[in-house]
């Protein structure tokens, strides 16, 4: 359903809109942030490409909008950014708020199939269908034909899998410290076990970037930018496994950059935000010149 | 006393150090953040100028380090930034934590004279003497001869007054939405009444930027950059009064920019962080070329 605009905040010559709407996918009220670059306001007839930024465990759509430093670069390129929440909130499911890596703040961008969760935990459909559809309906300045997707950690997993599952739908994808092979890491195993059931391994594979990239058609272009910090404790603990993704991709155009000394925090994201937005702009903005 | 380095976080090619030390001015443990630009690490023999950034009511030294986006610009210019806390914490003073605009998080960068507060609430001496002195002692890469000062809201008041009270000590000053005439606004009257007493109006004037700028020697150069958002509710409520400061300064070089539609938040600070760091760089970095 339509978005209620809770606040309009001037930012980098554009506006950050604080939005709320009732989601049909999650059956809960969902909050999000939408950054509109200066050109969306000064030239509303000029269609604006949009980047979907998916956040990581425990986050809402606020963290990256406040700390990620993507907006100045999006303002420069004339790109909008939407920062959705990472799960339904207040779904009144037993145990929903008991874990920081499962349930609230940890929707993992899948549609759950298990009892208890499947009624609300449909973040895949929410991000891939409902959210963009509602945005394009209400904000006519946004260009439904030029959408990129990015994310951090669990959100990097979301960005990679949603991109790979929908060839041609998203023009660009990048990730900061993504969970790249969830079926082989503790975070992913806990989440997929809970949302899909322990036995449903076929379903697990359908939401694993490393499995999905193997099936990507050889002749279809694939360019992915990934940054991972070498001082990232979750990387060191084997939660991210970007090597597996890179190896599975073979000759395809996966660029994994290991950033010396960087950790898993927003200090890492903000440091490379410019590179990522520039990367998306190459795909999202050049298209406009055709 | 010396700083304990609690964490070193890679950021924009430099490092954000999370520091803690026992302060002799406040008689409490004080936490702070110190950003060192890439050149401080790659060329430790090359002295680095430093900007002191004073935060506003309710903040610690973390908020602006995470949300202010001064670091990328400081990295570009080779400037360090220190983000101190805004008051002593845990001083065990009666009523210390009862108000968001007095006591904890609201030290107002003065040395209190009133019973109860004067033992710990010595943020003027802490910022103007103890903190830089300790930093220059421990971090030899920092250049004690090239120090700038800036701040937001209450911190803008701190930056302006500390600059004006110490001619020649700081090479540059700028402020975001500063409390510019505290003796004539509710925040300032509450704070000065509490820290100096209601009767001590002479002391009040000694920490009022508008009063201080009147006394600035005509032939001494004065260049100040101030940004204020026109949608800033505190500005509209008369808490900031930059007009009074500008008028009191007369022909002196005060640049007050009213930024259309911007509020009082870090979304405002981050949007103009580049301009402010550039302004400080003009004063702090050119000096190195002489």
UniProtKB/TrEMBL annotation, chains A, B:
Keyword Cytoplasm among UniProt keywords: yes
Cell compartments where the protein resides: Cytoplasm
Family matches, as Gene3D superfamilies: alpha/beta hydrolase (3.40.50.1820)
Record-level GO cellular component terms: cytosol
EC code: 3.1.2.12
Signal peptide span: none
Active site annotation, chain numbering: 153 (charge relay system), 232 (charge relay system), 264 (charge relay system)
Keyword terms: Cytoplasm, Hydrolase, Serine esterase
NCBIfam families for this protein: fghA_ester_D
Annotated family: Belongs to the esterase D family.
Task performed by this protein: Serine hydrolase involved in the detoxification of formaldehyde.
Name of the molecule in the record: S-formylglutathione hydrolase
Organism: Tuber magnatum (white Piedmont truffle)
Organism ancestry: Eukaryota, Fungi, Dikarya, Ascomycota, Pezizomycotina
């Amino acid at each position: 359903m339509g978005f209620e605009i809770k606040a309009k905040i001037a930012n980098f010559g554009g506006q950050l809109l604080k939005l709320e709407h009732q989601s049909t996918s999650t059956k809960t009220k969902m909050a999000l942030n939408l950054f509109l670059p200066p050109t969306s306001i000064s030239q509303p007839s000029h269609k604006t490409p949009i980047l979907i930024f998916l956040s990581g465990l425990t986050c809402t759509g606020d963290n990256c909008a406040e700390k990620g430093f993507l907006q100045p670069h999006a303002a420069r390129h004339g790109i909008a950014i939407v920062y959705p929440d990472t799960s339904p909130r207040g779904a009144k499911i037993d145990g929903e708020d008991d874990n920081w890596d499962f349930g609230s703040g940890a929707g993992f961008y899948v549609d759950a199939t298990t009892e208890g969760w499947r009624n609300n935990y449909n973040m895949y459909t929410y991000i891939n269908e409902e959210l963009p559809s509602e945005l394009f309906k209400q904000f006519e300045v946004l260009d439904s034909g030029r959408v990129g997707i990015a994310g951090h950690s669990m959100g990097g997993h979301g960005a990679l899998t949603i991109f790979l599952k929908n060839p041609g739908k998203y023009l660009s994808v990048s990730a900061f410290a993504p969970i790249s092979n969830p079926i082989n890491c503790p975070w992913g195993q806990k989440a997929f076990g809970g949302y899909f059931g322990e036995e449903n391994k076929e379903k697990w594979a359908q939401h694993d970037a490393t499995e999905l990239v193997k099936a990507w058609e050889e002749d279809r272009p694939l360019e992915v930018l990934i940054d991972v910090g070498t001082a990232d404790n979750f990387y060191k603990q084997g939660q991210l496994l970007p090597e597996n993704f890179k190896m599975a991709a073979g000759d395809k155009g996966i660029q994994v950059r290991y950033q010396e000394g960087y950790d898993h925090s927003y200090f890492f994201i903000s440091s490379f935000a410019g590179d990522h937005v520039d990367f998306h702009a190459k795909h999202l903005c050049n298209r406009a010149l055709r």
